[in-house]
Write a structure and sequence with these properties.
Rossmann fold, 11 helices, globular
């Protein structure tokens, strides 16, 4: 229990503190690799249709749901453990005129506060890496999906080339990940929970290019903005840059990456 509280505190710090503001600065409101275009790819592979009920687990600022409501006509539901992010998500949803299409709740992905078979799709974009008990989350996703419903997500993973324990510890410590495994780890959880995997893709080359883009943005355009967020601490800025450079190196080597998976609830 203490471990779970510590992980939750770390995640809330990432999303509601300066780190969250930094990621938003370079990624925009969607706060995931590739932004709009990657969301379009995932939604297309999931076959999301107008009127379908979509649950975004770890919904953050709600940009994923606003994307799905606006461009796919989905009825959105967001679950997040961070009240600060939910407050911002509700405000942004209202500003976009989508409050009638999206509902948010504070809660735990290990115990999703909706009934069995309620959703058509469970959705996630580069956020489940922060979940400690991933197996319980996947099991709960299966419970709240109707038969024939889909789970569709992207996430940061150990890359196809594999990584050393020291690399894993360095990246997970910097990113506040409790644990991340390879793409096959997610596939195993889905199969164990009774899903049929429809598509499973390695997105590591694109991931590496995006990390390089973020470094370029921070060093060639957004340095002043980033320094303001971290209290004008140049030493911290340099240290963050060093960790991002390490992530880029590992991504180009295939040791650190990203995947995209769609699976069907039988």
């Amino acid at each position: 229990m203490e471990r779970t509280r510590a992980v939750l505190a770390d995640v809330q710090g990432v999303y509601s503190g300066p780190e969250g503001d930094l990621w938003k600065l370079i990624m925009g409101e969607q706060i995931h690799i590739g932004g709009f275009q990657q969301s379009m790819i995932l939604a297309g592979k999931a076959g999301i249709a107008k009127g379908e009920k979509v649950l975004d687990l770890c919904s953050a600022l709600g940009a994923g749901l606003r994307f799905l409501a606006r461009f796919h006509g989905a009825k959105g539901y967001g679950l997040d453990a961070t009240e600060a992010m939910l407050s911002k998500a509700r405000a942004a949803t209202a500003a976009d005129g989508l409050s009638d299409s999206i509902e948010y709740r504070l809660g735990d992905v290990r115990s999703i506060p909706w009934p069995d078979g309620f959703f058509d799709v469970v959705w996630g974009e580069d956020a489940w890496c922060y979940v400690e008990d991933k197996e319980s989350m996947i099991r709960e996703a299966g419970r709240v999906l109707r038969p024939g419903g889909r789970v569709a997500f992207s996430d940061w993973v150990e890359g196809p080339a594999g990584w050393t324990e020291s690399t894993a510890q360095r990246i997970c410590s910097f990113m506040k990940f409790p644990y991340i495994g390879p793409r096959s780890y997610w596939e195993g959880l889905l199969l164990k929970a009774g899903f049929e995997i429809i598509s499973s893709e390695d997105c590591t080359p694109h991931f590496a290019k995006c990390i390089d883009l973020y470094i370029t943005m921070l060093t060639e355009q957004l340095t002043f903005d980033a320094l303001r967020i971290i209290g004008w601490d140049m030493d911290m800025f340099k240290a963050l840059g060093g960790e991002m450079a390490f992530m880029s190196e590992q991504a180009h080597a295939g040791s650190f990456g990203r995947c995209r998976i769609v699976a069907l609830r039988k």
